[in-house]
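haha ok so turns out i had the wrong file open the whole time. this is the CORRECT one, sorry everyone. sequence first:
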Amino acid sequence: CRQVAELEPATLVLVDTDENALYLQYRELQARHPSLVIAPEVADVRDPRRLRGIGAQYRPQDVFHAAARKHVPFMESMPEEAIKTNVTGCRTVARMATEVGVERFVLISTDKAVGPSSVMGASKRLAEFIVRDEAERSPVRFTVVRFGNVLGSAGSVVPLFKAQIAGGGPVTVTHPECTRYLMTIREAVGLVLLAGLNHPADLCILEMGDPIRILDLARLMITMSGRVPDEDVSIVFTGLRPGEKLDEELMTADEAAASQIFRDAIRAILTPPPPAAVMEAISAIEKQAELGDREGLRSGLGGLFPTYAAARGQLPETQAAARQR
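then structure:
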């Protein structure tokens, strides 16, 4: 929203279910851009009637869909919440875009959608399928932009490390060889706007350089604080959490082979629409989420994504499940 405001749109509509965060963002943008028309709307992407009302009221030219449940371990234990927001919520916003005649729709996706090992990653892959399927019947230019971790974003590791270092440690790292693609918020947003507003293909990948070891990031942050890693501040390895991978990928092998360079750090890929059987499976998973059928939901995801089924067999049971036994 900050970067879009700098482009001086006629109106900037902010839609969020977190009214406090929305209020603070609204006040900040008002102060920076007093002449800009900013419209804050408290709404949930799970509420189709409310979303349609907002769409009909403002008739937006462009929609950037970033709403998501993103906490990997939490979504493993509460999978229906990931599906309701990341899948059904995405379907609701995409259909609203078609109904009100939006020109461009951009879905923010994640590298966790590639060979997903978690409910969160699988749900975002399903969102990618939904957007691609909607594009088959819609004049809207739908673009999925997929990238890795964003430094300093909500729930990211940097604020956690800063707090742990400020408290004297220890700094917790899941695994000594765990790597992630990392990019700053401003870099990621700028590339999302460039890819989404130009619409070079239905899937755009933000190239983020080489992945970085999280252990190296922890040591760097400790050093930058003026302390010595493993002496002044200890580092503790806690083990991979449910659904987490050791390494992430930005593209599948087939996507990489089909990709073309669009601009620096952006790859554009034309992807086929998902088969009807996949869309039927997604609808079944959404119904299981509505019913709270967690095992049926997980089984459905495993049927679509062998990587998720394999990861489930390797994951340690949660503490809650262990206590119940």
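The CA atoms of residues 174 and 239 lie 4 Å apart.
again sry for the mixup
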